[in-house]
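Lecture notes, unit on protein representations.

Consider one protein chain, 174 amino acids long.
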Amino acid sequence: MRAPSPLVSVEMLLDDVAESAIRAEWQALAEAGFSSLARHTAQSNRPHITALVRPELPEIELSGLFGRPALPVTLGSPLLFGGSERRILVRSVVPTADLLRLHGTIHAAVGAEGNALLTEPNSWTPHVTLARRLRLTDLPGALPLLGGPIQGHVTALRLWDSGTRSVTHLGDFA
């Protein structure tokens, strides 16, 4: 089996309160024996909203984004991605005009060539991943472990490089 090609992603990080709420849901799923990102213990694993994915990232200038107030976000209802017996369980993110503007600004800074289609401005479904490979038969037991909507803020951007398994902090919102 061939290893997947390395990818980079620009990710929106959440404030401490929203991050803690997501981590609590990860933990509840894991403690109940379900698939959960709590089992992924790498230091780089933290709740985030992926804004862009592509094979490589040119030098980008995003400093004009930082220093602005943190962006309010609502983490909403659970969604399932995928089409097999095992799915990706995520928490939706309500796509406000400000969130879509930030997403569009990130994409404008890097250009359109090479971006993953699911992160393109007109195809993006903002979300925070809770579990990968959750069995459909586990869904009735997993969903009650999730709480209601989570209010939070996007506080920073980072770059994830799957090839080097490293993160680079891009900047903070005020």
